[in-house]
Structure formats: C-alpha cells, structure tokens
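Follow-up to my earlier ticket, as requested here are the two runs.
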Amino acid sequence: MPDSLPPDASRLKFGIGQPVPRNEDPILLQGRGRYTDDLQLPGQLWCVMVRSPYGHGTLNGIDTSAALEVPGVVGVYTGADLAEYGTLHCMMPAPGLTDIQRPVLAMDKVRFVGDPIAFVVAETKEAAKDGAEAVYADIDTLNAVTEASAAAAPGAPLLYDHIPGNQVQDFHFGDAAKVAEAFAGAAHVTKLDIRNNRIVVCAMEPRSAIGEYDAASERYTLHVGSQGVFGMRAGIANELLKVPVEKLRILTGHVGGSFGMKAGAYPEYLCLLHAAKVLGRPVKWTDERTGSFLSDYHGRDHEVTAELALDAEGKFLAVRLTAMANMGAYISSVGPLMGTSGFMRNVQSNYTTPLIEIATRSFVTNTPPVTAYRGAGRPEGNYFMERLIEAAAVEMGVDAVELRRRNHIRPEQFPYAAASGNKYDGGDFTALMEQALEAADWKGFAARKAESKARGKLRGHGIGNFLECTAPPSKEMGGLRFNEDGSVTIVTGTLDYGQGHWTPFAQVLHQTLGVPFEKIKLLQGDSDKLIAGGGTGGSKSLMASGSAIIEASAKVVDKARIAAAHMLEAAEADIEFEPHAEGGARFSIAGTDRGIGLLQLAAQLRQAKDLPPEVPDTLDVDHIFDQAPMAYPNGCHVVELEVDPETGVVHIDRYVTVNDFGTIVNPLMVQGQAHGGIAQGIGQALMERTNYSEDGQFLSGSYSDYAVPRAVDVPSFEFISHSVPAKTNALGVKGCGEAGCAGSLPAVMNALVDALSEYGVTHIDMPATPEVVWRAIQQNR
C-alpha cells in the first residue's frame, strides 16, 4: 500500500474532493443525537453547584446544616471533603509561569463570581437546587479587579499573597536589541493600542457530566462532553483523582460545541466522581445558561501595543507586540498559550518580516479563567498585523494592497524560515489575494460607496490577509475494526464536537482501502478503546486522523495480502490489491481472474480454523500515527460594509473569502467550517461585550445583555479555494476549522475603520457595537 492516495480517487463518488453530506446530520436533525444530558442512569442522583456571589472575598466558613435538612438532599460537600484529591493547574509548558494550584472548591478565598465553593447532591434536581440555596457562606468581601492593566496598577487588590502585583508570567521572544535597532533606523513607525476583547464561549450545549463508581473494580466512569477522551482521562486520573489511568473511563457522546472551552477538566467533574464513590450511585450535573456564563472558561482578553517598523520603500523591518494578558482568577490548562507563543507564531502572517519581538505579561484577575477559543492566538496575531498594515498605509500615503504585495513571501522563497521559528512549506499569497480582490470587485468599490453616500450611509471595504500556524499533530490512533455485519469501524482519538469527522474520515478510508462508504462507522468517544489520542484542537484533526487512517490502511493491506495468498493458494508476491476494482476492493493473483474481496476475506478469517502461524486471523489494526509538523492554512477575506452614522449600526453587505487549505477532502464541510468561524469573528468584532462592575459582578451574564450573531447579522459568503497542498502530511491538508476567525477579525475591522475614516477615525476597538461606533462618529464630527 503506498503512503499516498490512489491517483484515480478523485473520480470516486465518495472520494476525497467530493461534497458528501455529513453522516451525522440525519441523526441530529431527527432528534436522535445523544448528548450527556440525554443520559439517565439507574439510581441517578442530581448535583447542583454552590457558587460565590462575590467577585473577591475571604471565605471564613460554610454552614451546610440547613441544606442537609432539605427533603431529598443526600449530601453536601465543601473543599474540606475533597482534601485527598489533586488540584487544577496549567498543563502546558509555559516559561516563567508562576503556576497556581487551584483547589476544586474554593477554601480560603473566592476569586470570581461563580467560583464553586460547595455542591449539593439530592434525589432530584429541584431538591438539589433547594439545598444549594440553603447553603450559607460567610464571606468578607474584598476589592476586585477585572482588567489586566488594572491588576498591574500600583495598589491593586492582590488575588494571592504569594504573587506580587498579580503577575504570573513575563514572557519574551525575540532579540530586543536588534528589534530596537530596526525601529531606531526605520523610515516610518506605526503604533496602535489594540484591545482583543474577552469572549463568552456560548457553546450550544451547556456543560454536563455524570460520575459513576464501581466499588468492586475500584473504577470510575465519567460521561462528559469533551474534545478528546484520551487526554481528558489522563488529566483527571493523574492530576485530580491520583489514580492509574486504567481506573478511569471517559465516555463522550454527541457534543454541542466547544471551541476550546470543553477541552480540559473542570471542578464539577471531580465533585461528581467523589459523590458517586461516597454515595454508591451515579451523580449527574447539567449547567444552566447563567452558570455557563459565570463558570465556563472565557476566551481572548489581551491589551496590546502593536508596532511596525518600515523602510522608505514600505518594506517591513520589524514587528513588536507589548501585551498584557488576562488569565482570570486561575490559570486554565492552556491559559498562557494565546498571548505568548500564539502571538509569536502568528503575527508574522504571510509577510517577510525579518524581526519579531513579543513581550507579554500575564496577570490574574477576578474573572473566570481564560482558555483557548477558536484560533487560540492565531486570529489575534493576524489581526494585529493587518491593523498595523492598514494604519501604516494611511500614515505613509501608500496603497494598502500594494503595501501587502511588497511584503508577501514569494513562491520562490519556499521553504521559508520565518522569524517566528516556523518553516513554511509553501503558499501563493499574492496570487491568492489578487483572486480575492477580483472576486470582490475591489475596483468597483468607489461606485458603491457613492451610492451608499447618496442614501446617507458610510461604506468601507477591508482586507484580512491571514496565515495561521496550526497545532502540530500529536500521536494519534488509527484503529480499523472489521465487524461481523460487514462494516468497518474507524477508531480515533480525535473527537467531533460539531465538525463532522465521520464523513471526511470515511472518505479517506474509502479512497485508500476501498471500503464502501456506507459501511464505514466511527468510534471516537470511549477512552477504553484507545491506545493514543491527541484530541481535537488547533485545526489538526484531519492531519492527524487522516494520516493515521492512511497508515493503518497500509497495515491492513500488508496483513490482507498474506491472508489472501493463503486463501488463494498463491505466493504473496503475486497478490495485487485493487482498492476500487469493479465490485469492491479486491485482492487477486496477478495475470488471472482469481481473487477475493477485502470484506469477504475479513469474514473468512473470522471463520477460519487452524490457520498457519504466519497468517493473521483478523484484518483489524491498532496503529499509532507518530506525529507531523504543523501546517499553515492561509487566505484573504474581503469585506464591504455600511454604517448608519445616525445610529452607529453596522451592516455587512458583501463578503468574499479565498483560502488555501491545502487538499480539501470535503468542500461542503470546509465551507461550513469557514462560515462558522467568520460568524464568530463578526460576533467578536461587532457585538460580543463582557462587562464587569467595579466589585467584579458580571453585568453581561445572559443573552439579554450579551449579543451573539443571528442569521440577520451575517451576509451570504462567497467561498473560493486556492489550494496549495501541504508537503508535511500524506493528505496534503492544512486545517480549516479556525481560519474563519483569523480572516474575519481584520477584514471586518479594517472595513469599519475605512468607512469611519471620513470622520477622521483611524482606529476603533472591538467590539464595535452601535454605541461605540456612534460615539466615535460624534467625537470626530
């Protein structure tokens, strides 16, 4: 079996490149999906969390006596009851980080509104709620701080006695002296203060989990929405339960969105497992939307000074980001990633910037912890660079499109060693941008602007070039199971939480091994079935699982060739494999019409007796794909929008996106991923605002106060592919799941600033709500 794809596969109905509808859709649309909250286990109890109503305070004690008297309540637990367990903390390498060991339940202090301090278990959810309301917490309130810059100010309230100035990390990348020299010698320097606003994740499905414990085997089971059961098992078993991983099973069914938020462990999960062990019954918890706003990890939240140095011809000399990152009250498992290596790897984008410097200080505040949110530093880095380019073009009197052309990495420069330390394997950046401008009728903008002006509206257009560095594919399982009913199951450690993995994975297997598309199943959410698993995140799933499937298919062919030679009474060297022979995948004797089908062979091996030792008794394979370098999806978004100067309302009128996602396995699904990412980018740019009071109360803690895009808020998208296959994985794919955010943030905000430039506006921060836009107009009128 070759390590690449059959050359004729593009002609297959269900092969790579075909817009095959998602296998999951009939199940979900018919209400047959099974999310965690759909599960009801025999003897199940209910859990409700007791959360801090204050942003910051000293926790003097908790009185649970009244709660224990509530009918139906069977247990109330505080931090003292969980003393034997471990803590939550940062799980990624983070240079210079002062890590915080977060107790599962707060014990000495409460540090944000929603900080869990106890939990109640009862026979019904209603009884658990009544019990939770009866818990009394004696809290002396303290002053709170909710912004990184405020946390850094002299005299700011301290969240931890051992962390002076609330600073938990001082990250630096780049040669400061060389960068300073480049800025000192630059013909022009552009400088912008940019806010990367905090985001509430707003996954469709709130978090939910059920804990079980089997006393006989001393084994835990957790049903929970996640982004990968293999990693979740390791984190909870090793860090919290402090048991061998084989003593914990993680089961994940359908998941209604995550975007990074459900990747790691949360306090509630250990609470459920502890209660299940103590009470001898399954214990269930499902969050409500208010609880989600208060306790789910948030995204983004950086205050950045961005600078770009250029020579007299407009060539980029250096880019420098000086940032403050808000970690929230505790540090999530990947909290420091976004404002450090996320900025560093992605601010380069697709430009030949020879020097990069990133200086980020991270602070704790009285807010929920921050974690990865769709892109995890990649949209941010591209946003900063694109805003700098637009501002520099205005300041220098240079056309912004031409400024990009002058600085794009050219095809003949690949492989390109970027200042970030990454090595780009290929791309066609200028041609891709030109294609986007042509499709958007960039030259016809002036006429449309005049027509808008005649109606009393402001029109602007903007470009969002982007190149993002995906997460490098980690070790991933590519298991294949030949089932008795003639189907084949793919076993993988990545996990679909809305992406639709089943279909593209099946397309890869259909193409490489010739298994009929309709006979392919997917198993992905049971940690007991896995031998490896990197989970889903960083736009790497198809790079990892696709490569694992290709390599596992090769192992199946190797095993099957031996078995076919035995069954056909021929030499192994004479056995040929045709994955797409008429009638199905087939092994045959070269030069003859004698052969056997792949699925027929698998069935005969199941029934065979007394096979020679060299002949396998099954075609099943358990394979681990080792790893691969990261990939570099890139593209250009072009936006036109209108602004009503009397109200500040922004309407996006036209949207074109041209993307290089490498080999596209399923164009229908890739477009869907792009659309979703763009919509989330529009939400962050124009709508989604998190507000806190001075004492740390969350003022935008519901959909009455926090706006997310609806259908009327997003335009129709024109999606065009300009693919340059990656050279670092067998499929040539580059990842697409988060790219929509990376292109939409700069495209939308550049278009908005362009529209407001008539009033002298040179920059406006996200979220540019109607009020913010209206005030900017009034201040410059």
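Run two:
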Amino acid sequence: MAAPDPALTMPRAPRAEGRFIETKLRRPQVAGELVALARLDRALTAALARRVVCLSAPAGFGKTTSLLKLARALDAEGCATCWVSLDAQDNETARFLQYVIEAVQRALPGVGQYMLADVSEANVDALKAILRSVCEDLAARAAPLALFLDDYHLIDNPAVHAVLAWLLKVSPDCLRVLIASRYRLPAGMDGLRRQQVLADIGSAELSLTLDETACFLSAAQLPALSADQVRTLFERTEGWAAGLQLVAMALQAEGRGAGFIDEFSGTDRDVSAYLLEAVLAQVPPAVMRFLSLTALFDRFSPALCSDALGQHDAGATIAWIRAHNLFLIALDDGGQWFRYHHLLSDYLRGATAAGAPDQACLAYRAASAWFAREGLQDEAIACAFQSGDLHLAADLIERCVEDVTQRRGDHDQLIRWYQRLPEDTLFERIGLRLSYVRSAMWSGRLREAQSALLAIESDLALRYAVSVYEGKDAIDAAILGDLQICWYMFHVFSNRVERVRESKRAWGAQWERSGNPIDIARVKLAAACFAFIEHDYREALALSASAQTFYERCDYYSGVVGCRRMRWVLARERGQAREAEQGLAALYEENCRELGTYSIIAANTGIQLADAAYECGHVDLARTVLANAFDMSSKYGLVTDFIAAFLTASRVLRCDRQGEAANACLADGLALARERSLPRLTVALQAERVRVYLQEGRIDEALKVGRGAGIDLAQPGEGAGLARPSELVLIELRLRLATGRLQGLGLSIDDLLAQTRKQQRVRLTVRLLALKSVLLQQTGRMDDACAVLGSALALGAAGGLSRSIVDEGPEVRAVLEQLRRRGDRPAAPGGSSAEHDYLNSLFSACDDAPASTPPFCGGLGTAVKMTQREVEILKLLQCGLDNRHLAVQLAISEGTVKWYLRNIYQKLLVSSRTAAIARARELRLI
C-alpha cells in the first residue's frame, strides 16, 4: 500500500482509555503456579506449531488455564501477547473489532497506520481497514504476536464469525490466534483445518486422567484422600476440572469429608448443578439473593446494585464474594464493574428464571432505567427486551435514534432492534417506523424500505378513517410530511423517474410552506440528486445551494457537507475536474478533522475525491484515499457513491496491474447492485466491464455483457439519443466500433454530442469526442480524427480531464501520437508550458494503463509491429477469405476476427481489406 498523502493524513489523537473495560484486555492472573499436567502440556506445546489454536470443550474444562500455559510458553519464546476476554456484548461486530485492534496496538505500540482514536463512529468497514493496516505492518516488521480470544462461545453473531475468518485469512504468519470456546469454530474455518493451519484441542485432551486428578486434588491442599476416594471423584466428574474445583471448595468447608464424597457419587442429578448447590449451600441468604439478582446481567457495578436493585450494602457483599472465591471476575482496576464466571451465572439465571420470573423482570426493568440514566443506551435497551417490556424497549430506541444513526452511523443496529419489535408495538410509532425506513434506504435495502412505507401508508389511512369517525384531530401534518419525504427519497434512490416528477409536482409547494427547515432541506437535496441524475446541472446546483442554506440554519453538519460535496461532483461532470479535486480535497480534510477519517461522511467525500483525482491522472492520491474510504462508501453510500466507489477502485487496481482484483471488484459491485435493486449502478459497472473486455480483446465476452444490459446490435437504438442512460449508450457505441457496425455511427455520435453540449456534460462530451476520433481513425480519416481529438483535448486541458480521454484505449494513443508529430497542442490555461504539461500527462496516463492491444507504432514510413496472429490473418486475407471462413480457419468467433481486423487497419492506417493487403506488402509483412 502506498504511503498516505501528507496533506490528507490526520495526526494521531490520544488514546481514549475510557472506551474499554480494562481487565477484558489483560491476561487473567492466577495465584501460585499452574498445575503441571504432563500429557496435556505436551499436547499444548505441539499445538503451537500451528498458527491458529482452538481449545473447545464444555464449561469448566480448564480452557482459560490452558490458554495461560500457552501464553507463558510464548513469553519464553520472546513472542508478544495480547488478550481479549469476550462477553455477550462483543457480539456487535464493531465492538469485537475495537477490542481486537486495541489489544494488538497495546501489545505492539505504533503498529498499523491508524489508531482507534482516528475513528469517530463504530463502523465495521472502517475498523477492518485499520486492522488490515495492522496486519500489513506486522508482516513488514515480521514481529511475532499472539492474540488470545477467551470465551469465544459467547459469540453467536455470524457476522463476527465472518470477521474472524477474514482476519485469519489476511493476517501474516507472524500473528498467532489462540481461542477458547465451548464449541468448535464454525464450519467456515474448515479450510484452515484442511490446510493444517488450525489445531483443535477438545474435551478429550482437556479432560484430566486419573493420575492428573490426583495431582489436581493434591495441589488444592485438601486433607489426604484415599486412592478409592480419588477414583470415585474422577469417575463421577469424568476428569472435569471445574467439577473437581467445586469438590475441593465443598471439602474445604467444615464438617465435610468421606460422607460428602459418598453422597456425591450416588446422586443422579446434573453434576454442575449438584456441585454448585453444594457450594452455594454455604452462602448466607442475603448474599444468595445478591448473587441471584446480579447474575442476570453481563456486567454489574455497586452503583447499579444500590440504585436499581436495592442492594445498598453491595460493596460489602462483593468483598465477601471475592474473599470466598465465588467465581467473581473484576472488569476494571477501580472495582466498578464485575461479572461472574459463566458457569455460575448460567446456573443462577436459569434458577431465577424458573423460580422467580417476576423478580427477574422487575430487576431487568429497574436496570434498564438505570443504564438509560447513565447514558448506556445499548445495555438499557437489552435489559428492556429481557424484561419483556417491549414498549419500554421501543421508547428507549426512539430516544437514541438520532445518536445511533447520525452520530454513530450504525444503521444496522437500529434495524436489528426494530426487527425485534412486534407489529402491535410499532403500530402507533410512525416516527420510529420512518426512522427505520431511512436507515433501510441508507443501507441500500430498498425492498424493505418500500414494504415498510406501504405498511405505514395503509396504517395511516386506517387511523385517519377512525379519527374522522370519532371526531378526533386529524393526523399530524409533520408525520405526513415526513412520510412524503421518505417516499420522495425512495423514488430518487431507486431511480423511479416518473414517480419523482409526480411527487415533486404534488408535494413540492407543500414542503416549501411547511416551515420545518430540516424537511425543506431534505427535499431540496433529494430534488438536487434527482436533477443530477437527469443531468440538469444548473437546477441541481441551485437546489443544493438552497438546501445548504436551510441545513446551515439548523446547524446540521452532515447535510451541509452533502450539499458542498454535490457542488464539486457537479463541477467534475461539467468538466472542471481540477477544481473539483481541489475542493473535494479540502472538504475531505475537514471531514476527517471534524468526524474522523473513517466516518461515513468522510468516506463518501473521499470516494468522490478519488474519482476526481483519478480523472486528473493523480492515481496515487486516488489509491491513498480509497484505502480509507472504499469499504465504507461501497456499503453505506448513496447511489452515486456506490458507482464511484466500485468504478474508481477497479480502475486504480487495473493501473496497478492487478487485473484479477479489478475484475473481482467489478463483480462484487455488480452483485451488490443486483442484490439491492440499483439499476444505475448495474449499468455503469456493465459499461466498465465492456470497456475492459474490448481492450483485452475479449470481444465475445463484451458482447455477452452488452446483451445482458439489453443491447441488441442487430437493432441499434435509433434516434433515442440520451433518453437511455448514458452508460447504455457508451456500451452500444463501443460494441459497434469493435464489431465493425459503423453505418450511421458518426451521425449518432454527432446527435449525442449536440445533447451533451446543451446539458453542459463536458466529461461525457470528451468521451464521445474520443470515441468519434477512434471511428474516424478506423475508417482511414486520420486528419479528421486528429481534429476531433484536438477538440476533446481543448476541453480536457481547460478542466484537467485526463482519464476520460486515454481510457478509451490504445486507439486514442495512436491519434495522440499523430497530434504530437504534427505539433498540434491543446489550448490550455497558462500558455505553451501548460499545454506541454497537459500532453505529457496524457501520455503518462497512457503508460499507466495496463497492456491490452498493441499500441499504434507510427505513421507511414515507420516500422509497424504486428503480432504473429495478425500476420497470419493478413496472409489469409490474401487468399480472399471472408470473416466467416477466417473464423473457421482460426477456430475463433467472427466477432474476434473483426477485432483483429480493426487493430490491423489501425496499425496500417487503412480502412479496407484491399488497402491492408497492399500496405502489408509494401512493408514486407507478407
């Protein structure tokens, strides 16, 4: 990865320690020495030969203890280690990644290009980008590091499993990952097992043998036990370490001995329940009540116990529990947060749910209120759901919608909460339902958004009928306005042109009179997006400027940024790429400073900056910005950002000679576009794929993509102009050029040029001029080709357009060579020096392009380089074979024959077979 542009790299902010529960990131401490168990210790040592180790066994089999043994062994090797003790809250993918990144960067300070302090929002793709840079840095340093993940069985979110699989795939060999879980790793890890990268250690290895049981009990400093007693305990516990530990705790109590062992061996009850009952029977009733209440929560504090649960002596009770080793784990050094060993908390939760369900509900409800007052909204909502009070959960969700979606950008979290609420709870909460619609649209889930909007519309109609019948007030106008705005935005995002126009006519005036600045701003910006899609750039610029005024009045930063960004996107499409790049660079730097490098807003600005930079030929800048912004914008961006993200990323990868990665990027974009019903994105990516296939000589595949996009070359679009999407038009033009269907093509391009000039679509105008120059060159009119490309260069030089010209392929390079020989230079601002620099930048961009068809090698009188296949075709032309017979003779398609003939004509500067044969003879090629 290239080094970041110094102008765009933000300084590292200080680490925010308060974001983490400190002891989750620390290796557990044990008193005394770990018990030496020779057989198990040998198995653990052998497992270290693999890069990934997973200890999987039921609760209490000593998985954490075994991890500690592995950690000490790695310490002895000089390997750095980091630890994450997972809990149920880590099922959130972003939280999981945050803890992993923090643990790694604490173990090796300075590793990776960015720190978590650079991130203002808990976004998965941004965090993955940080972790990817950490892995690259580890590989460069070759620094050995071991990451320990304890209690991984608490993770049941498939998205987190996928992230772990991704980490194991992209991480270097110097990073070991050691995992403790009650379950085997998911099926997605089977590839690691087949590659012998993953070592599984299960309950068979972790179960203690008879001899190891004797060692374990002896280390507990119990009164001497006979061999029969040890055997009895071994057989009953089946080598279960936690069971033996509970036995030791019970035997240490006064008055217990052989009688307890005999009773224990004769019971048929569940071993863990029996042993816990034996231990908990020693606990005073007040402490038992405390245990039963606090075990309901993944974590608890003395303040929660006192204020919400009525346990005013919580401090003393916690001290008693710690003194009696009742599986209590401190989560920070200050004694503010605790949790129990999962074995104990699972047992107590089950007992409380079965014996006192009402008490559990009251505790959850009280805790929910306490968490809400403390600003811990996620835990407040989780407790509300646990209590069964779904109305309370919905109330809490409504209160934090803005924080979750606009500050944190976590639309997926809102969607998950919403989907847990039943219809009867949601029926009256139209505001929450519309918030869900906006999150669904922002996440590209247009089908879900449409279904929700239709349901809201139906429910409001029913409510209106009831209100009229009962003589009540009509529906709040603000709710109706919000619904209309959501419909309008939905039509814009899904490119439903006629519905947008209808909505604008029917509702536009009403919104303008509503007096709500946010509503007015949203509608104006949506209308500006629609005008942009319709290529009415003057209207789009005016509407976005007006929307910005309303957003500024409300101090709504994200809206202001959206309007400012649109201004520069419009400038780029109007041919002012150089100015757009400068404006977007300044805006991107501001977004990073205000919101963080990996915020959604900064990412979307970065994607547009990358597109402008690529257009200007600044591929290094585009690559740097994409490294930070692509994953986020390609997931959360609006339609224009989706298009720019995948197109620019694939083009930069192709410039880096990473053809397979570029093709994969296009394939991912197409899959996402189809999944989310985004037709504009689909067609734009299909157009790019056609362009790439043609330049690689894969004409049959290009024709197949064209047919998939609805292009029928047997019946080309006649007179349709730009009524179709411009990408479809470009697909057809390129395919007609490639297959020799040239009749009327010049007139079609001229009609299109007249429209684009009228619409001020300078970027597309330059592309069409480049294609027209290829057409003229292909028909042997090199002078006219030079004149037309000269017009394109004049427009390009004025605005800094580069890639729109050279990306049309090696044919354009041939005409540029002719222009340079003739001394023709585009009129560029700044005089002859600027003209010279512009031409040089174009040839530099041509050199950046990946090799495809051989470039033009000179005019008449110069050496012409032909490939072996092209010479073979020339010899067959001498024999009078037509295209069909040429295809049969060469075992290729007729389309590919036409592709070769086009290249031959281009190199020989001719436009017919006869002229090609004559010219080839003159140059002694045949």
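The only thing I checked on run two: Residues 476-555 form one domain. Let me know what else you need.
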